[in-house]
Write a structure and sequence with these properties.
It is a single chain. This protein is mainly alpha-helical. Helices cover 72% and strands 3% of the residues. It is built from eight helices and two strands, in the order αααββααααα. Strand 1 and strand 2 form a beta hairpin. Helix 6 runs antiparallel to helix 7.
């Protein structure tokens, strides 16, 4: 298809005007990827390859008559100051909400949470220690073995279970350093 016809097709597909000269420069720049061919004075191109290439490389707001508008720039210093003032007010509001939530007991410091998790792990370990003797006796009786042969296996089981529990519990809690920097 000729560059002129391709410009019409691209304009229609992208929803905004693409001039023949603009498309011609684009084709010249990316000739190795689009593979245009010359027939006399006319440059012919594969429109599907061109559309695919532009779909990857050109940022266009589809259906818009204006070219792509990135981040909107704030023009005047008064507008910038207004944006900054709004953001400062939002931050102050967040701090007030956090303060009220702490007063109501709805927020807990990460360090307190980590200490509570460690205490839970210690309590869990103590409970397993108490149950170990009874479990060893019960397993020994059922397997017609002696408890002294069963206890080492139960200790390994306890150690592995506690380590996995501790690792997962502490991984779920954010580090206190992160909490301190967020305030």
């Amino acid at each position: 298809m000729s560059v002129s016809k391709a410009a019409e097709v691209v304009s229609e597909r992208e929803g905004q005007k693409v001039d023949r000269s603009t498309l011609s420069r684009y084709i010249k720049r990316y000739a190795s990827e689009i593979s245009p061919r010359r027939e006399g004075r006319e440059t012919l191109i594969d429109v599907n390859a061109l559309l695919a290439h532009r779909g990857i490389n050109i940022r266009v707001e589809r259906g818009s008559s204006a070219p792509f508008a990135g981040d909107v720039k704030v023009a005047s210093s008064k507008e910038r100051k207004g944006v900054i003032d709004v953001r400062i007010a939002e931050i102050e509001l967040e701090r007030e909400e956090e303060k009220r939530a702490r007063e109501r007991g709805q927020v807990v410091d990460v360090s307190d949470l980590a200490a509570a998790a460690e205490a839970a792990i210690q309590a869990f370990s103590a409970a397993l220690d108490e149950a170990e003797s009874d479990a060893a006796e019960d397993i020994a009786r059922r397997t017609r073995s002696e408890a002294r042969h069963v206890r080492p296996g139960l200790r390994v089981l306890k150690r592995n279970a506690l380590e996995a529990f501790r690792r997962e519990l502490l991984a779920a809690i954010p580090s206190p350093e992160v909490d301190a920097t967020s305030r």
